Amino acid sequence: MIWNEPADAQASNSQLEAKLWDSANNLWANAALKPSEYSPVVLGLIFLRFADVRFATVHAELKPAKGSRRKIGPADYHAAGVLYLPESARFDTLINLPEGAAIGEAINAAMRAIEKENTDLADVLPKTYHILENTTLTQLLKDMKAIPMDRGGDTFGLIYEYFLGKFAMSEGQKGGEFYTPTSLVKLIVEVLEPYHGRILDPACGSGGMFVQSARFVEEHHKNPTAEISVYGQERVTETSRLARLNLAVHGLTGEIRQGNTFYEDLHNCPGKFDFVLANPPFNVSKVDKERLVDDPRYPFGLPKTDNANYLWIQQFYAALNAGGRAGFVMANSASDARSSEQEIRQQLIESGAVDVMIAIGPNFFYTVTLPCALWFLDKGKIGTDREDQVLFIDARHIFRQIDRAHRDFTPAQMEFIANIVRLYRGQAPELTQGSQAKLQEVFGTKLEGNAPSLPPSELKAAEDASSYNASSSSPSGRGGGEGKPASITYSDIPGLCKVASRAEIEAQGWSLNPGRYVGVAKGEELSDADFKAQFEALNEELVVLNAEARELEELIAKNAAEILEQS
What we know:
Layout: E1 3-6, H1 14-30, H2 35-61, H3 74-79, H4 91-95, H5 103-117, H6 134-145, H7 155-170, H8 182-192, E2 197-201, H9 208-219, H10 224-227, E3 228-234, H11 237-249, E4 255-258, E5 273-278, H12 309-319, E6 320-331, H13 339-350, E7 354-360, E8 372-378, E9 389-394, E10 398-403, E11 406-408, H14 411-425, H15 436-443, H16 456-464, E12 497-501, H17 502-507, H18 515-518, H19 528-566
Helix pairs in contact: 1-6, 2-6, 2-7, 2-11, 8-9, 8-14
């Protein structure tokens, strides 16, 4: 199925974002800084402005109890869900410093004071403002002051995400290590539906998976701080700090720990989590597998090839509790990988936990043009009618073309793809983002209303009754309103989606590549762009296969040498 959209008209925050980005670029031009040097400076001031607005709101409301002699202190602000800002760290104090003051040193001191009063931010905030001239800092502070205080919604959070994305583009390949495009994260969250529970991201980067999970909970009328708890691990120290800062910008707290996830299980993960969301680095090599022997996070064995994709996949699987769900981004080549990786994939499929596979087209990442796949695991379907089934979705032809080199999904497209999964599970579709017309067009059934779908607790109860009940009248808080249950049901659509049995998957060599199952819609032809994407994916697989071949050659040569020595 082909559904392409042009770039939207400018969003409501676009002029403000552009102005702030111009200010950031002045740092690059006038201070001769690299993006990796000026990004912490800008993000730190966005954070400070955000924290100051929230502090000022609570500051105006907090008053000592009548007759009490106790003074209002940091604990009162923490109880209200905001960071405490000492007088020297407040935005008005900094922006009103006299012209001859050492503004950079004052901002550094402000960051240290904030960390002292808010221990969750210890050693997180940037303190390199002294390298910038007063005129540059004064202009930056003025530009940050321009962020309006009265704009509704998560304005600051959206601007922060915008800057993370822009810095990822500016920094090239390195930037992609910490930032996953928002539309992919949102789609993962929409499919997983993390209403309540413990969420893990063992390759958390800047923490975007946690932010979108919290936003999902908020959109469905719940308090994320009460409903979810987040746990992250990140190898790079600076990036783990960025994740903690990102959580703080969005008013969240979580346990973010720094360490190499392959060797260090800092959250004691096996069997512990309700949800796992991740975008791990693809095709990592040189992992010391001798250090992984007997690690319970790799229950299906260690791959022989020098590629960590199936180490990540097993980590995600092992971390789930009996009803847990995982959603993660993975290299296309992993869906069809041969040899020992195929053996691991077969065991994973035979476990019954593989739930949904979604093929994503090229150019969704800022720094990599290759297509990718979204994997979804669900241990909760083991023992149900869907245990030996996997839903395959080919979404390579669904996208919005932002510019020549970048794509994303519109809200309607994300909702449409997630609704295919909901229909497969027997849930009612979500109809709040404009997907209704496309659902009716594709599945050929008139929708009768916007019925809420079931939260995980009710889904589990429905599973125990052998099937999901889409017409349940139990309220779930799913956003959108009342209405009759939707009458639409799932069906295989050539070129878009297919539910395959375990026997069909075995016949395809245990492949999890959606293209092998969904086929091509009638009348559709392979375009030049499709050919390029397929060629790039095949080339990626060839690189992996060549690496496996070299390993086999080395092993054969080693064994032959040992035999000759013994003879």
